Amino acid sequence: MARYSNYADLAPGQRVGYLFVESYRRLVQLVFGAELFNFPLLSWLRVVAYRSAFRIGPGALIEHGVRLYRVHQMATGRITIGRNVALSRRTEIDYSGEVIIDDYAMFSEEVRVYSHHHPTDGDPDVMLYYRVKSGFTPARVHFKRSCWIGSRAMIMPGVRTIGENSIVAAGAIVTSDVPDHAVVAGIPAKVIRRLEFSERAARPPDRA
């Protein structure tokens, strides 16, 4: 199977597996993503359910409305989430390509992550609608350890890395890689500050 394949590329047996996994993941998010599971006695059930459907490490915080999805029936789209990751309410992550989230990463409310894009260049005699419909390109994005994505920030396709201990300000639209220990803000996001960390900061406390 190619590095990126959709439902049409799969063998019959693989199609059954894809449909089962995709249906289960959507059902988990529909049911356990509801606000009902915000109650303290029920919130742990949401985490258990999401971890049963996706590859998510221990210690995760998952609030209501978190949506992890892939489009265009991308069978090879995948997402891997590390330990102690925070996914705040109504965060949406497109993993049609590949999304890797390292330990201790934090996503604030209504963050949007995209891992595919559509062609816009082409034959000048072809209208944009048909160029866009002609296909799409999956992409890979890596959120490194202890990064913090601010509320309503957007990570656009083509961004490959969000650096370790970096901050993406609220409302920023990120169109290029974010360096380690940087604060970025604006549209498009630019580096506005550098953060300093000692070697000790690389070792999280035992309670984390």
Model description:
The protein has 208 residues and is α/β, with parallel strands linked by helices. The chain has one domain: UDP N-Acetylglucosamine Acyltransferase, domain 1 (3 Solenoid), CATH 2.160.10.10. It contains three helices and 19 strands. It has helices at residues 12-32, 43-53, 128-133, and strands at residues 55-56, 61-62, 67-69, 78-81, 86-87, 92-94, 98-101, 106-107, 112-113, 116-117, 137-138, 140-143, 148-149, 154-155, 161-162, 167-168, 173-174, 182-185, 190-194. The model has no long low-confidence stretch (mean pLDDT 91).
Q: Which blocks of ≥5 consecutive residues have pLDDT under 50?
A: none
Number of DSSP strands?
19
CATH superfamily: Hexapeptide repeat proteins
Helix amount:
10-25%
Distance between the termini: 39 Å
Radius of gyration in whole Å, from Cα?
A: 18 Å
Largest sheet: 7 strands, mixed
Q: How many helices?
A: 3
Widest sheet, order of strands: 2-5-8-13-16-18-19
What is the CATH class designation? Mainly Beta
List keywords for this structure.
alpha/beta, 3 helices, 19 strands, UDP N-Acetylglucosamine Acyltransferase, domain 1
Quick overview:
By secondary structure, the protein is an alpha/beta fold.
Set out the fold topology.
Layout lengths: L11 H21 L10 H11 L1 E2 L4 E2 L4 E3 L8 E4 L4 E2 L4 E3 L3 E4 L4 E2 L4 E2 L2 E2 L10 H6 L3 E2 L1 E4 L4 E2 L4 E2 L5 E2 L4 E2 L4 E2 L7 E4 L4 E5 L14
Parallel strand pairs: 1-4, 2-5, 3-6, 4-7, 5-8, 6-9, 7-12, 8-13, 9-14, 12-15, 13-16, 14-17, 16-18
Antiparallel strand pairs: 10-11, 18-19
Helix pairs in contact: 1-2
